[in-house]
Amino acid sequence: MTAKNIMLTPGPTPLPPSVLEAMSRPLIHHRTAEFGRMFVSVIEDMQFVYRTKGTVLMMTTSGTGAMESAVINLLSPGDLTIVCTTGAFGDRFVNIHKAFGLKPVVLPFEWGTAINPETLRAALKENKGVKAVFMQHTDTSTGVLNDIKTLSKIVHEESDALVVVDSVSGLACEPLETDAWGLDCVVTGSQKGLMNAPGLGFAAVSEKAWKAVEVSKLPKFNFDYKLIRKSLADKETPWTPAISIVAGQAAALKMLRAEGMEACWKRHDDLAAHARKLLTEKLGLPFYSKNPANILTGVVLPAGVDGTKLLSDILKEEGISIAGGQLHLKGKIFRLAHMGYISKSDIDAGVDALAKRLVGVKA
Amino acid sequence: MTAKNIMLTPGPTPLPPSVLEAMSRPLIHHRTAEFGRMFVSVIEDMQFVYRTKGTVLMMTTSGTGAMESAVINLLSPGDLTIVCTTGAFGDRFVNIHKAFGLKPVVLPFEWGTAINPETLRAALKENKGVKAVFMQHTDTSTGVLNDIKTLSKIVHEESDALVVVDSVSGLACEPLETDAWGLDCVVTGSQKGLMNAPGLGFAAVSEKAWKAVEVSKLPKFNFDYKLIRKSLADKETPWTPAISIVAGQAAALKMLRAEGMEACWKRHDDLAAHARKLLTEKLGLPFYSKNPANILTGVVLPAGVDGTKLLSDILKEEGISIAGGQLHLKGKIFRLAHMGYISKSDIDAGVDALAKRLVGVKA
Questions:
Q1: Strands laid side by side in the B296-300 sheet
Q2: At B106, which helix (H) or strand (E)?
Q3: Domains (range + CATH), chain A
Q4: pLDDT digits (tens, 9 = 90+) for B324-354
Q5: Which of A157, A353, B177, B184 falls between 20 and 30 A from B225, CA-CA?
Q6: Does B248 sit within 8 Å of A244, measured CB to CB?
Q7: Prediction pTM value
Q8: Who among A100, A101, A219 is closest to B101 (CB)?
């Protein structure tokens, strides 16, 4: 008998039964009233999750595609931007900028630390005319939580720039108030806190951001926010959407609606606390991040341990997926996720599997 | 009791039970050997369907996204191209070109007629230095079949241009020989002949096309063929893929492998003949296209009939989805699909529903 597949990875995360059931239903055509109703429910429920009365757009793509969509819809060649980077996903925003010929001012922060608000303030004072500031809500590569509320306040105090937030791994796991915090564009993906299969990207777009979209001159077609908004008025998408994943998203969002966002954030808070208590008791290894988010816990492995082999063994022998470190952290840390539909018993199984193999080396 | 949902639409098409089952399985993580094996099987089976030994790339996107990916990966600003257009999807290639600042030579053919090979030859003689010629294998808006083999031969005789084919609705429904016909880039989507849910785009890329990719200067990141090929070597995708839809595609492709491409084309041939015989007998209305593909039959409605209401009634009252005309054909034709997992009994139910409502007006 194959071991039960337990995913403790920071995206994709496990799927609730109702989501799997929704995806297994025969397709409905996307130019029908029935699809329109489902699609509108997804958009409205996403406004609920985003805490916005503004427009929410849906795209068939990955989180990376959603990130790209923000860059190419808000900016024009020559625009000055600031990209704050706290890990692999901040670097991805930089790479997207470069791919489209933009030369952002990059504010790098040491991996494992959060964006320093005063560093951002100084950069805004130094660079006048910044069109947009890009930041991660949480960076999945390090598990760091950035103080988006404070950072957004500083951007608005010091400039007229748009605040663009990658909340691919943060949304629904950590408090985020799109409207109340003055966030202009918040992008996310379906496969983390939203408890759905990967395949959908979303963008919440403020009125101020729409003004930038109107004059943006970077080239786009597939991700053109204006075309997507136009179709949304007809309860449609401009191109054939990933209908099954939309059905899964509708089911997952019903669960989040029923739970409520405060309770959802509290659930992640509790789950993170549970994981960290257990990791401390059973492993006693140092945590990687200074300001950890409730999405995952990064744990530094002892020098002699081959982290890649450790996690590969656990997957092979016990069917439990745990993520390793990315780039220079490969083999050196593991990232135990506690987001979305991950349960306490999943965490317990994961920590047990780790403890069994790290006993003796932990001292 | 709700009527059985029958989809006679030219994408998405109905899903086989094994595809629905595959999509309802708990997710596996996309950075695992298990996913790698599934992904490689999809790529290899797609080579089988495409009839190519060349590279096949997979993207999480719609057919439109796959079309865009070909334009932005093969071309640079200022490149001269020819776009042959036989309907809405040829026009879409033109719009993608324009969105990226390209000014293609457009060869429009009357809706319902195929690309005239000699018109293309004359255009190639007149326009020297063309980098690529774009064409639809079948245009879903009209159901027309283009003679890709002949057209590709002419392009290679008259120029050094790449042959770029949109086979989103044609692949697996009509013969297509990527290598034998010298096609340089063939894009498709998962939701038509490939019998899967929408959400995946594919591109078959020839060696000659890769040379163009290497020097292409149009901006891209999410759809960057070089990044996608690099990850493919590691049995991965650069960004999180739509894992459930990949599982569905693997299951659907197993069916096509077992059937064989010749038998699959024959099945579509038989199904189209069945549909047209029945439509002639029961409706007796004129067909729209001069050179119809086996993907669908466009039928011209009598002047007094409101096609939009007709199809909306059939969907509401009998649960059968049939597509109407697009753009200027809205309300004037219907498009009865016979592609992918659509069966004879589905066709029979659709034609019955149409005949019931068109009796008396058909004379």
A1: B6-8, B320-324, B333-337, B296-300
A2: strand B105-108
A3: 6-13+260-358 (3.90.1150.10), 17-258 (3.40.640.10)
A4: 999 999 999 999 999 999 999 999 999 999 9
A5: B177
A6: yes
A7: 0.97
A8: A219
